[in-house]
Amino acid sequence: LCRGGLAERLCRLQNRERSAISFWRHQCLSDDKIPSDKSGVLIVRILEIFEECTIQVAICQQLEQSPATLSPEDAVINSEEPILKVLFTRETAAHLKSRPQDVIHIYPPWQKLLLQNADVPVIMNTYFSQKVLRSEHSEAREKTYGLTKMLIRKNIISLAQTFRLDDVDDKLHQESSDNQVPCAPQTHNNGDSTRHPLAVSAVNDSLLEMVESQGAVGWREVQVQVVIQRVYCLPAREGHRSHTQGNKPLLSNGGMFCRLCLLVQDAYGMFSEVQLQSLGSADDVEQYCRRWEGKSCCLAGMKILQRTTRGRALGLFSLIDSLWPPVVPVKVPGQSQDSEMMTTNLPPPSFCYILTVQSGEIHVEVDEEEQISNLYQPPAVHGLKEILRIGGCNERCSFWAQVLYRRLQTKHSVPIDQREMLLFVTDSTLQNVVHGIPKVVAVSVTASCVLSMEIMEALSAGSQLVFFKDALWGNGRIICVERTVLLLQKPLLCSAAGADLSELTGPVRLDELDSTTQASSICALRGTVVGVNESTAFSWPTCNRCGNGKLEVCPQDRELLYCNQCSEVVTTPVLKMQLEVFLSCPSRSQSTVKVKVWHEKGLVSLFVLLTMLLFLQTYEVQSVLGKEVGLLNCYVHSITSHPNCVVLEEIVLL
């Protein structure tokens, strides 16, 4: 704020005002009595309450200055005084928790405003107000009503109506009695299944208008109609773990709690992220994607968890930017909603509300039988060759690829469930390329990307065709982050945009090791054995059930092996062998190429197996020198220039 400016002076005035109100309320609570000074005190009885533009409006009757011994029910109504319309701010209304028939003392400096063409005066500046409860009957009524939720009628006033824009449809909609909820203490009977909790709600089509009119606490009496653009899971924050421990979480990513989330968009193009609680259903997130994406739904009972901006949530806004501009014209706030006035020439959203649900109620109504909304934008599927040519940064992309190999990043200081995983994928657009573009691409899956158990089990079983939805592309890397979804089946609705999505027909080819090969990639290798690292050549038995490589001698029978993990005797152990060899490769003639070759369950080339057996049996280096190594599939650990060395490990593709 500019020093000495109007905004700074207003901010100081508001701070002093809040301090004065807090001090006055604290003094009233400390004295445990109503202030004795009755000069200028306005005493009113509430007849009706409703809310308009976040202000609580109370229709009241003024009472005479009654003796302190009389209860509010015994106070005499002054028929000569007109009815008053008393305005309470949201904070004051929350402090008073007033209901019809309550008696309120309003202390100075309250003000009376007389409006033209209106018979009812308006009382403002009611910050110093106190509810009076003197009789035992009133206290009992307060305790009884305190158990039920007071439903306040909220008059929805649109901007078009406020500024008298010529929109007859909007005026008729706002004047409709459907927007009115009875103002009376009501208790919903949980056993009455015929009444839906949202049956009497008014429907709005603007998220921003609902937030501004209903506030951050949450709205229950009205609904917002939106379109579900994306369905995904997010890792639950630590604060939500205790909340969901009593319920079964929807998904678990390595033991990490997750929440089902919806990215929704209203008729004005406004986005919000709705974080749902665990649904207690056995369905996978893939099922919710198929059932909900593209459908219209009504939200109710939402409360604002956070108002985030582009600078605070780059991942969220990269997803929003991929859905912008809208595929159909959207409404413009404050303008006539005729079709010729709608436009898509709008700047992308700069903020987004993160919404969450009030616990214990139904808040999301999805009409699964409804047709797909015209506002819905399905993921645009591209070939990997096309994605690698995208010049932008932090661009969302979707593609269909064959997973050839997966590798968990071995950072021992990081827990296993928080480590990144590399998936090496390819498709027909890469396999058909002669040169210039790699035939295999590494996709980094971060710990924040929630993977379903179905995906994890499928990747463990073998090579899979996986649909990567809304992955992040930037700086030459494809990354699966928060809000990226991996599916085993292609969505029913997706835009191919002319991409070649044909499946692989022949064997998969890897790029051969050359001067362009980078670390943390996979390649094919051929060369001649020129040396063996004798100190690392060894073999060891492993458990045939769990793969445990630390077997012990069985105490009962010294000739048998025992597995501590299985707590059983291992009668048929699996022999693993490892050997490090140095190769001379024509493609990298200036480099020392060291390859770690291994044998497990016969999953290795016949040449390497014979070479390892020959060396381990004779333990003579000369027996393997000069042997030609065919095409081996290898993972590149590191590439250094000083010394000029390439370290690889033989791998088995899925």
From TrEMBL:
One of its GO terms (cellular component) is nucleoplasm. GO terms for biological process: double-strand break repair via homologous recombination; regulation of establishment of protein localization to chromosome. Residues 265-653 form the DUF4503 domain. It comes from the Eukaryota. Residues 1-113 form the DUF4502 domain. Residues 175-196 are annotated as: Disordered. Pfam families: DUF4502, DUF4503. PANTHER family: DNA REPAIR-SCAFFOLDING PROTEIN, DNA REPAIR-SCAFFOLDING PROTEIN SPIDR. This is SPIDR protein. The gene is Spidr_1.
